[in-house]
Amino acid sequence: MRLTFGIQREKISASTSRADIPDWDSVGHLNLMLGLEEHFGVSFEIDDLTRLTSVKAILDYIDRACRST
Amino acid sequence: MPFDLKFERYQDGSVLSFARVPWDSELLGLDVIEVRLTEDDLAAAGEALAQWIESCAPRQPSIVYLRTDTGKVALGEKLARLCFYPVELTYELSIPLHRLGSVAPGWRPRARIRPAVPSDLPSLMAIAGAAFQADRYHLDPHIPASRADARFTSWIAEGMKTGDPIFVYEETRHFEIAGFFHWRSIGEKTVDLSLAAVHPRFQGTGVGVSMYEAVLGECRSGGHEIAITRISAANLDVVNLFARLGFSFRRARMTWHRYQE
Q: Does residue A57 sit at the B interface (CB-CB below 8 Å)?
């Protein structure tokens, strides 16, 4: 998120969501998902995009994905 | 779909012509009339408009609309004096398709484009009834939102009935329709993306980005060289998207409404 949106690490917490980051629009969302795919080796489906709209949701998803591999 | 209106000149040599818009009149329960002005002579345009309004006091509620280039401030002032109000700023855009960029290179969603089939109609109508919020009828406070919604659901139903080229963008895990679009060829090389919508559930998630990239890629593969489209300035997410895809903004037009009870 820091790389995609250029915000400081200390401003990101589990409760951060789209509403908190003005640049987290549709294109920003896609770039964030791509960055996560690259970094964590996960693969998102279109349906996932609708749910991963907060840091907590993303962490939960990646946690589940890492456990299942 | 009947897009061609029959314009009538107000008087011989007048700079004003007008046409009733039958489909919008029927759907909105108002007389909807489009006016066109020759804007070269602003004084004559303003005078003709004032006379025409005076001469055609409507028998029922009406919306008169016209479009002007945004630089015509003097005309805008005349329109405001005649009780017209600005409802929608629209950009006209184009892109040579060989210059089409990718907003998110590397993103390969499991989705496909296919022609819409009759069994898609309920999904398409649900999307059409919910996806559009930034057009001039939704923005006009005199029009109930339900009627503005109905304009799009009716459009898609009619388009399916008459065999318009409507395509769906479908994710291929659950085969859910994420969006739809309509295009038409203008000549051999130009394609007009006349309408597109993304299911509200997918809005803001980048699915629209994928859809537009896929659609424009299809147009390029099909031999089109230039794509044109229009977008409401109120739809900022899509304005930004077109800018990032490499579209040029060719013209800005203001649409004015005049409502009379």
A: no
Backbone angles phi, psi at B57, to 5 degrees: -50, 115
Q: Which of these, B94, B70, B88, lies nearest to B242 by C-alpha position?
A: B94
Could you tell me if B241 and B93 are in contact, meaning their C-beta atoms sit under 8 angstroms apart? no
A10 in contact with chain B, both atoms CB, cutoff 8 A: no
Check if A34 contacts B (Cβ < 8 Å). yes
Q: Which helix (H) or strand (E) holds A66?
A: helix A55-68
Q: Does the distance separating the beta carbons of A47 and B171 come in below 8 Å?
A: yes
Q: How far apart are the first and last CA of chain A?
A: 23
Of the candidates A19, A23, A46, A24, the residue with the CA atom closest to the CA atom of residue B207: A46
Interface contact flag, A50 B202, Cβ < 8 Å: yes
Is B176 buried (19+), middle (13-18) or exposed (0-12) by CB count in 10 A? middle
Is the complex ipTM more than 0.85?
A: no
DSSP lists the bridge partners of residue B169 as B113, B179
Residue B96's DSSP bridge partners are: B226
Q: What percent of chain B has pLDDT over 70?
A: 97
Q: Is the pTM of this model over 0.90?
A: no
Kindly state the tokens that stand for B194: 């006349």
Q: How do strand B190-198 and strand B226-232 relate by DSSP bridges?
A: parallel
> In terms of residues, how long is chain B?
261
Spell out which residues of chain B touch residue A25, defining contact as CB-CB under 8 Å: 204, 237, 240
Q: Which one-letter amino acid corresponds to residue A58?
A: I
| A33–B106 CB contact, under 8 Å | no
State the angle between helix axes of B236-245 and B207-221 in degrees (0 to 180), rounded to the nearest 10.
40
Contact between B74 and B203 (Cβ < 8 Å): no
The whole-number pLDDT of residue B120 equals 96
Q: State how far the Cα of B92 lies from the Cα of B79, in Å rounded to an integer.
A: 22
B76's enclosing H/E stretch is helix B73-81
φ, ψ at B218 (rounded to 5°): -60, -45
Distance from CA of A11 to the nearest CA of B (A): 22
Nearest chain B residue (CA) to A28: B206
User: Hey, what amino acid is at A11?
Assistant: K
